């Protein structure tokens, strides 16, 4: 059995190479078959021409895409000012829920109630209630801006989720770390700040990345209370042209941001799993 | 309720005299033979449909629908109502209605995707202003300084952008209720609606608001004309057009308009 | 006056009595070894001394002062009593030197640069100078445990507690850690060890206590306890442990 050793490979390597080549061939041909089926069969459906004209209309796409891209800047801006606020608030809530000081017990209850409520209500309802409701109390401009209150609705909702993730991170740090910190005489606050949190935050970064991706999409909910971001802009085009292609355009723009972000989050998770094992 | 039905039946009976005998235009072209399926919004708003009940024949569009049906030879009891959103109306594929009327403005772009009947109403655009700015003078320069809102899915948006060109980016909403909520929250000063809607909102919904002006129909490139929406290539279109033309010629349409839409002459024109 | 004195210390976890009226005295500069089977209450007793666990009854006196009074702030006491754990418990996100500096920085309000000379000296004394910048996962178990000892020493404690600090180590790494303990004893540190290293206890301890079911069964000088145990439980335990 030495006749294949010419390339300087072991028997096992040669066998594995063969398996790999075969797997590659199978994967390539099955992928090709699926795509061929989609590209050949779907256009054969009787309604394809109409679907194409109303969802994949190149003319409409070209006409609306630049303006959609422009409107997307607003999504990014909203995202950029919401994300840090969510992180800070989420962390504070997580810490409030972790507190053991009996004097802060009301804070713990509030923290728990807060996360229950804001995770339980659909985001769009919160956006409506806070976005229209609070300014309706009679705030003067510019303090009644839908940007402020709509963003606050997003911040409150997402902070509830982010807080739970931080809390799970905090709880995942072994209690022996707390004991070690305490045995050195560190206060609970110092122990949290220097010992527990840095480890907890590192562990939950991939999960928080997924929250950011979800947030990037939910920014579009602000359109319900006025701001003309990409989703509303696409809706306007859709109405005026009676054509859904602008939504496809908006989806393309969202994907261009979220796919790399999702891949990156997955990469971080995989990396973390490797480090743990 | 029975009174409404009676009125509708009366209209139908009246028109029946002018209708075709067997084998008229719409035969075999409707979803259900012998019946006409008409869609409207959910909810349908005053003054287009009263109390969200188009079956009563009350409200401008409800009345027009029954009149057109009668003209096409359908008795009132053969008219079936369904509800549809804008998106359902324009989605590709078979429709679950023959006609859809919910203040759809006829535009060139839309006509590429769906069919519209001949217009049954030409709506001037009007400005609804919140109480705090109700006495703004109606020069374009003064109007440009307001914070504007509009319903995102309507032709009010291009009219607003082209005719007034506000200095700050207008806020757009998903439906009329949201526009008025924003006005009540003080987030917008003024909003653009078709005149009948604006009058209704000012009188009933937004306290202290006022319709401060309307645009003459020739001021906009696309004067807002409402048409009944049909599936692209619907063979029924010819019959519907004929019915609407006939109602226009006989003055019946103007009668219905006078009955259901408020007097709009008191609103000043914007120059 | 003994450096540390325990009178009737009782600790329960629910129904389970882990320390059942323990009396123990440790003189200044003494090394006391606690021996006994797993679950005898050695580790819990150490955690009670360091106030990581509140005790139900009894008292713990440090320099004659009761440190176990319910409601007392434990932090000032913990600064005076250092503790080293079986599983090292280094902070994995910090380098060795950061691990050591954290508590003095926070509690004595000293800057890194002010602390560096004395900390470097500690590392040097325990043969770890080359490892100061390493993260815990870049160190061997023995090195990690020595860093943990340095970390506790940096607080300049008066008493050190060691909770089976060699049990998690590969046999060939045990020696370097025990050398550190000898070094510490020579420097006059008061130490309490929970340990399974019988040979070390016999060689280095001033006093050995045998615990069983949360009670001190027998205590005495190592030669006496190891060579002539009085109590049958002690005899049985040693017979198995020294086999």
Automatic annotation (TrEMBL), chain A:
InterPro entries per UniProt: AA_ABC_transptr_permease_3TM, ArtM/GltK/GlnP/TcyL/YhdX-like, MetI-like, MetI-like_sf
ABC transmembrane type-1 domain segment(s): 72-265
GO cellular component terms, A-Z: ATP-binding cassette (ABC) transporter complex
Gene Ontology biological-process entries: amino acid transport
Bilayer topology: Multi-pass membrane protein
Keywords: Amino-acid transport, Cell membrane, Membrane, Transmembrane, Transmembrane helix, Transport
PANTHER family assigned: GLUTAMINE TRANSPORT SYSTEM PERMEASE PROTEIN GLNP (PTHR30614:SF20), MEMBRANE COMPONENT OF AMINO ACID ABC TRANSPORTER (PTHR30614)
Protein family per UniProt: Belongs to the binding-protein-dependent transport system permease family. HisMQ subfamily.
Protein name: Putative amino-acid permease protein YxeN
Higher taxonomy: Bacteria, Pseudomonadati, Pseudomonadota, Alphaproteobacteria, Rhodobacterales
UniProtKB/TrEMBL annotation, chain B:
A Pfam match: SBP_bac_3
Signal peptide: 1-21
Keyword Signal found: yes
Residues of the Solute-binding protein family 3/N-terminal domain: 35-264
Coiled coil: none
Keywords linked to the UniProt accession: Signal
Top-level taxon of origin: Bacteria
Name this polypeptide is given: Glutamine-binding periplasmic protein
Source organism per UniProt: Shimia marina
TrEMBL record, chain C:
SMART domains in alphabetical order: AAA
PROSITE patterns: ABC_TRANSPORTER_1, ABC_TRANSPORTER_2
Source domain of life: Bacteria
Location within or outside the cell: Cell membrane
Residue ranges of every copy of the ABC transporter domain listed in the record: 4-238
InterPro entries registered for this protein in UniProt: AAA+_ATPase (IPR003593), ABC_ATPase_HisP-typ (IPR030679), ABC_transporter-like_ATP-bd (IPR003439), ABC_transporter-like_CS (IPR017871), MetN_ABC_transporter-like (IPR050086), P-loop_NTPase (IPR027417)
Single GO MF annotation: ATP hydrolysis activity
Protein name as annotated: Glutamine transport ATP-binding protein GlnQ
Family statement: Belongs to the ABC transporter superfamily.
Coiled-coil stretches: none
Organism annotation: Shimia marina
Membrane topology: Peripheral membrane protein
């Amino acid at each position: 059995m030495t006749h294949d050793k010419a390339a300087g490979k072991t028997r096992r390597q040669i066998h594995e190479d063969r398996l790999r080549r075969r797997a590659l061939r199978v994967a390539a041909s099955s992928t090709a078959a699926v795509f061929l089926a989609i590209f050949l069969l779907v256009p054969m459906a009787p309604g394809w021409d109409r679907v194409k004209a109303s969802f994949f209309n190149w003319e409409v796409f070209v006409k609306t895409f630049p303006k959609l891209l422009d409107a997307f800047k607003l999504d990014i801006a909203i995202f950029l000012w919401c994300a840090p606020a969510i992180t800070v608030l989420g962390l504070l809530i997580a810490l409030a829920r972790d507190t053991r000081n009996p004097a802060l017990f009301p804070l713990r209850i509030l923290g728990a109630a807060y996360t229950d409520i804001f995770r339980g209500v659909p985001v769009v309802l919160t956006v409506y209630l806070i976005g229209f409701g609070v300014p309706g109390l009679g705030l003067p401009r510019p303090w009644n801006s839908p940007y402020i209150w709509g963003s606050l609705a997003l911040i409150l909702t997402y902070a509830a989720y982010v807080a739970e993730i931080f809390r799970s991170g905090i709880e995942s740090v072994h209690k022996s770390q707390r004991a070690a910190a305490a045995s050195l005489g560190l206060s609970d606050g110092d122990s949290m700040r220097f010992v527990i949190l840095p480890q907890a935050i590192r562990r939950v970064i991939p999960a928080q990345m997924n929250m950011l991706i979800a947030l990037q999409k939910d920014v579009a909910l602000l359109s319900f209370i006025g701001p003309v971001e990409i989703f509303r802009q696409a809706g306007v085009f859709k109405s005026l042209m009676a054509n859904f292609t602008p939504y496809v355009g908006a989806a393309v723009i969202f994907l261009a941001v979220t796919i790399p972000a999702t891949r990156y989050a997955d990469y971080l998770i995989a990396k973390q799993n490797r480090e743990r094992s | 309720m029975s009174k409404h039905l009676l009125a509708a039946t009366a209209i139908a009976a009246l028109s029946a005299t002018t209708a075709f005998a067997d084998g008229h235009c719409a035969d075999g072209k409707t979803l259900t033979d012998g019946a006409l399926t008409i869609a409207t919004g959910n909810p349908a708003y005053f003054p287009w449909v009263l109390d969200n009940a188009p079956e009563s024949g009350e409200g401008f569009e409800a009345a027009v629908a029954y009149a057109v049906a009668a003209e096409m030879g359908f008795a009132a009891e053969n008219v079936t109502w369904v509800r549809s959103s804008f998106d359902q109306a324009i989605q590709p594929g078979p429709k679950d209605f023959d006609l859809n009327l919910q203040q759809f403005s006829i535009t060139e772009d839309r006509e590429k995707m769906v069919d519209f009947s001949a217009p049954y109403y030409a709506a001037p655009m009007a400005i609804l202003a919140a109480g705090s700015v109700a006495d703004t003078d109606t020069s374009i320069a003064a109007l440009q300084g307001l914070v504007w809102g509009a319903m995102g899915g309507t032709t009010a948006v291009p009219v607003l952008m082209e005719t007034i060109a506000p200095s700050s980016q207008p806020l757009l909403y998903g439906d009329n209720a949201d526009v008025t909520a924003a006005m009540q929250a003080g987030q917008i000063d003024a909003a653009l609606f078709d005149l009948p809607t604006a009058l209704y909102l000012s009188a009933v919904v937004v306290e202290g608001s006022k319709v401060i002006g309307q645009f003459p129909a020739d001021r906009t490139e696309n004067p807002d004309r409402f048409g009944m929406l049909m599936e692209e290539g619907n063979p029924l279109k010819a019959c519907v057009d004929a019915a609407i033309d006939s109602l226009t010629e006989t003055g019946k349409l103007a009668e219905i308009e006078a009955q259901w839409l408020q007097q709009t002459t008191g609103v000043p024109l914007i120059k | 006056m003994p450096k540390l004195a325990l009178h009737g210390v009782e600790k329960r976890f629910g129904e389970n009595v882990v320390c059942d009226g323990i009396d123990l005295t440790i003189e200044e500069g003494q090394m006391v070894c606690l021996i006994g089977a797993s679950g005898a209450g050695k580790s819990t007793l150490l955690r009670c001394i360091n106030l990581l666990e509140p005790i139900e009854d009894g008292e713990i006196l440090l320099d004659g002062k009761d440190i176990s009074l319910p409601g007392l702030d434990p932090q000032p006491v913990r600064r005076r009593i250092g503790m080293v754990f079986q599983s090292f418990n280094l902070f994995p996100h910090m380098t060795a030197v950061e691990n050591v500096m954290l508590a003095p920085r926070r509690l004595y309000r000293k800057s890194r640069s002010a602390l560096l000379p004395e900390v470097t000296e500690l590392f040097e004394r325990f043969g770890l100078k080359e490892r100061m910048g390493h993260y815990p996962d870049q160190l061997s178990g023995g090195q990690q445990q020595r860093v943990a000892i340095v970390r506790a020493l940096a607080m300049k404690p008066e008493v050190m507690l060691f909770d089976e600090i060699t049990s998690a180590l590969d046999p060939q790494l045990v020696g370097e850690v025990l050398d550190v303990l000898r070094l510490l004893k020579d420097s006059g540190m008061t130490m309490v060890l929970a340990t399974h290293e019988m040979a070390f206890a016999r060689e280095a301890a001033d006093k050995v206590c045998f615990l069983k079911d949360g009670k001190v069964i027998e205590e005495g000088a190592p030669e006496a306890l190891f060579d002539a145990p009085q109590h049958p439980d002690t005899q049985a335990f040693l017979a198995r442990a020294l086999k």
